[in-house]
Structures are given as C-alpha cells and as structure tokens.
Amino acid sequence: MAGRNIRELFPEEDADDVVISYREVTEGIMPRIRERRRMVRHDGTIAWVYLVISLLRDVNGVPAYHVTMVENLSELQALQNQLGQQSVRDMLTGVATASTSSPNWTPCWKVRARHVDHAAARRHRLVLGDQQRSRSPGR
Q: How far apart, in whole angstroms, are the C-alpha atoms of residue 79 and residue 45?
C-alpha cells in the first residue's frame, strides 16, 4: 500500500472523510482516530475495516510519520451473521423461532450498517466544545 494515494484505498464517498481524519491528527485536533470504515480491496470489492490513525513526531515535536493500522473485520462480520442466524433458528429443527413471527422484526444479518460521517460528528463536537468554553460561568 506504500506509495498509493489515500483516495485510491477508500470508496469515493468516504475518501474526503478519511483525508480530514488524517489532517485532524496531523494538526493535533485529535490525538488519534479509531473508527470503522469501508475500504477498497485490491480486486475492487468493499471490506469493512477498523482504521486507526496516529502520528509520530520527531524530537522537536514536528510531525514525522503517520502510523496507520487497518484490521479486516470480514471474519468478525461473518461470525456475527452466523450468530444472528443461529439466534433466530431452532438449532435442532432449523425452524424459525417464535420471536421471528413479529411483523416488525428484522434479522440482524439483513440490517445494513449505516454509514456514519465521523468527520462531521467530530466537527460538531468541536463546535459544541467552543460554545461551552465561550460561556461565562455565571450564566
């Protein structure tokens, strides 16, 4: 992955948020970033990963390197799906359990994970933090 652009590694709609995450770590806004993200595999398919971004500084405190850890969550996702299927089926007969007969019930493997705009959430927290700091204690 060395030498590849960040925008090549993440889906187009997520790339800007990842770049913002790197910028926030570099500028010291966040000490590190830890989040679930979608990443593009070498074959073009999407994988859910756990992304951790941190920064190494030199002896003068100047940013030297980004340290990025990417953990593939595919096996974890598959195990969660399997566990979800087991929880709605009788282990002996394979018949759906009574709780699945509810019209509002959706099996967990059919619920799609919502994409969360992590960068927007961080910006919102920063703005709220600025507003709280600007209030006087007597109010």
A: 19
